[in-house]
Amino acid sequence: MIEVKNLVKKYGPKCAVDDISFTVRDGEILGLLGPNGAGKSTTMNIMTGYLSATNGTVTIAGHDILDEPMEAKKQIGYLPEIPPLYNDMTVLEYLRFVYDLKGVNEKKRDKHLNEIMDTVKVTDVKNRIIANLSKGYKQRVGLAQAMVGNPEVLILDEPTVGLDPMQIIEIRSVIKKLGKNHTVILSSHILQEVQAICDRVVIINNGKVAAIDTPSNLARTISNENKFMLRIAGDEREALDALESVNGIRQIKSLGRKEKNTIDFIVETLPNVDVRAQVFKVMADNNLPILSMQTVDLSLEDIFIEVTENDKQIASDVDERDIEFVQIKEEKKDEGNI
Q1: What is the model's pTM?
Q2: For domain 2-75+151-220+301-337, which architecture applies?
């Protein structure tokens, strides 16, 4: 659906975007992360055609944003960090204006706009002046204008900035719903939000792609250790002695009792060592039932700090497969047109 290839943007001697490449698959929600000044907004502005690139290409649904700007932009709905609203209009007047401005070919305009307003839940304020709306409602109206024309791609720059927790939950729910029928690129500083919504993340640091993958794959790439949590029925001392007899365990941390007559542990192994089978055996031998065992991955916040503070660059095979995925889809599409 989207391919960003060798993208470069320079402002005089400063390189804001430095040879960035990634793809976004059809129907995927991709999170775009990075510290302030990393190049996220510049990348998104180039992808939407708002800025031109110094070098490189952006292809939207097979259309180059530079060579075929009108066709490419028809596929895009864009919500910038500050929604482009006309505060003296009502919500419905504004969406009708956007409809006409985009030259949408939908025959039943009001039906189309009513469906959008229902999706983002602004129907109850459609006749109110935008200036009188709360921050949350204004953000929803901004999201509604991005959806006018039913574009295949939605690019959302900080869609929940400045919202209260309840509004964030509501907008997050809307975005997840949109991801079922649209390809979505989401930029956010709320890492929990990205982890909850996005299928993959791209972390940009100093104008470069520092990491790209699913959060769970990134966690395994950054950390060589296997770390898991155990809940064991029995005595803490006996359970600890049994765990210490297992070769390959580097550290054991007791978390105390969460349930009656149980004890929780965090177990960390040596790099690339899997001790789970041994743990099961030794616990069974000591009559200490394992009630639960689950892996503990790094959070997206841990990954972000590790990548950006240490200026790491993490290679990912997933992005290469995505490029192949896009190429295969395009080939099949071309074959179908012959």
Answers
A1: 0.70
A2: 3-Layer(aba) Sandwich (3.40)
